[in-house]
Amino acid sequence: MNAPQTRYYEDVQEGMELAPVTKTVTTKQMFLYSAVTRNPHRIHYDEKFAHSEGLPTVLVQGPLQGAQLSAYVTDWMGSGGFLKKFAYSNRGMALAGQPLTLRGKVIKKYHQEGRPAVDLEVWEESAAGDLLVPATATVFLPARPTV
Fold first, then answer.
1. Cα separations (Å) of 101 from 25, 113, 134, 138?
2. According to the model, what pLDDT value does residue 1 have?
3. What is the pLDDT of residues 109-145, one digit of tens each?
4. What CA–CA distance (Å, rounded) separates 68 from 64?
């Protein structure tokens, strides 16, 4: 995979939408994520157990959803950007094998600590369009070089 291209502050406008990205989390990915994060809760990898808890299938871990959204932001900002701040909140159930769409928009452009900064709203939606994970981010972007 190639490093993301540099995104310059001057090329970003308030209200600009980030290109949506759709991800489908597999049960294998969730099992491995549970192992790496030492999360033994069976609702994330044991479908029979999830059914016994009244769930339709295994649930995608909240931190995995947050990680996908933060990667969405860092991919968007490119190799010259710096993720200053990121916060998310799980609000709905994401199910294994379900397409999840990551979306976002630029809320504000300004300077912080003497650097060009951009505030973003990003979120994850279910295939039905339900908001599952809202998030906010502040990124520093490089200024376009002057000649």
1. 11, 33, 12, 21
2. 44
3. 999 989 999 999 999 999 999 999 999 999 999 998 8
4. 6
Q: Quote the DSSP letter at residue 9.
A: G
Q: Write down the H helix ranges in the chain.
A: 27-37, 47-52, 62-77
pLDDT tens digits for range 84-105: 999 999 999 999 999 999 999 9
| Residue in the block written with tokens 């502040």 | 138
CB 22 within 8 A of CB 28: no
Give me the pLDDT at residue 28, please. 87
Q: How far is CA 130 from CA 21, 22, 45, 93, in A?
A: 15, 14, 23, 10
Q: Which domains does the chain have, with CATH numbers?
A: 12-25+61-140 (3.10.129.10)
